[in-house]
Amino acid sequence: MNEDKYDPDNPMHKSRKVHGRTFVKGMSQRQFDLLDDFLPKVALDVDLLRDKGIEALFDEAKAEYCMEVGFGGGEHLARQARENPDIGYIGCEPFQNGVAKLLIEVEDDGIDNIKVHADDARTVLDALPDGCLDKLFLLYPDPWHKSKHNKRRFVSAENMAQIARVLKQGAIFFVASDIPDYVSWTLRHLMNDANFEWLAEADQDWLLPPQGWQSTRYERKAQRNGRKSAYMFFRKL
């Protein structure tokens, strides 16, 4: 462990203007080095995205483009990218320890179809052109349990309007959560949104993980604590 490498003046280590922690102690020397040296090589260029579109982010055109908001440790994002090299992925995560974990997989496996935004996903949503994404993942978002903090939840009218804008017609918005209140919150927002259609037709459609699902570390933690997950698919109309 090399906790003393933390540099408050390094923009990769600074606190972000998002709610919650963005850095904790306990990263290895390699993780710090990856944030300093490797992240710039795979970082998403917001100005390029805004000016030239999503296709300009990658060396070659992709069959589809997907985005994961708050990728945690990056297990799901890295697996998706490895299994689908013809798809371009954008991953957003302000939590620097999680970004460092993803970067290990990206470097070790030579993954070249992920662009990383180590900050607030809303910045990327603002820059994305209309109707450019085929799928957007929101896996185990912070539930912000206290009522006074509910306004901090990612599922909100403002963010759903942006997601509806950037998704193609027929594209999928996939949300997973182990917090019953957040599941209800999500369903209330999305089922009352004319831009989305909930695809569940029976209980099993949203109480069982989709085929080929790989559990994330947050999901495994929830399972150890006896919490069950809900898997919600919404189609952009």
Provide an overview of this structure.
By secondary structure, the chain is α/β, with parallel strands linked by helices. The chain has a single domain, classed as Rossmann fold. The protein is 36% helix and 19% strand. The protein has helices spanning 29-42, 46-52, 75-83, 96-109, 121-127, 157-166, 180-191, 204-207, 217-224, and strands spanning 64-69, 87-92, 114-117, 133-139, 167-177, 196-198, 230-236. Helix 3 links the parallel strand 1 (64-69) and strand 2 (87-92). Helix 1 (29-42) packs across helix 4. It is globular, with a radius of gyration of 17 Å.
List its salient traits.
36% helix; globular; Rossmann fold; 237 residues; single chain; seven-stranded mixed β-sheet; alpha/beta
What's the SSE pattern? Answer: HHEHEHEHEHEHEHHE
Through-space gap between termini: 48 Å
Output the strand order for the largest sheet. 3-2-1-4-5-7-6
The CATH H-level homologous superfamily: Vaccinia Virus protein VP39
Task: Output the radius of gyration.
Answer: 17 Å
CATH-defined topology = Rossmann fold
Report the structural category.
alpha/beta
Work out the strand percent.
Answer: 15-25%
The level-1 CATH class:
Alpha Beta
- Count of discrete structural domains: 1
What is the tally of helical segments? 9
Total beta strand runs: 7
Residues in helix, %: 25-40%
Sketch the major β-sheet: 7 strands, mixed
Low-confidence stretches: 1-8, 10-21
Mean pLDDT: 87
User: Looking at the structure, what is the overall shape?
Assistant: globular
What CATH architecture do you see? Answer: 3-Layer(aba) Sandwich
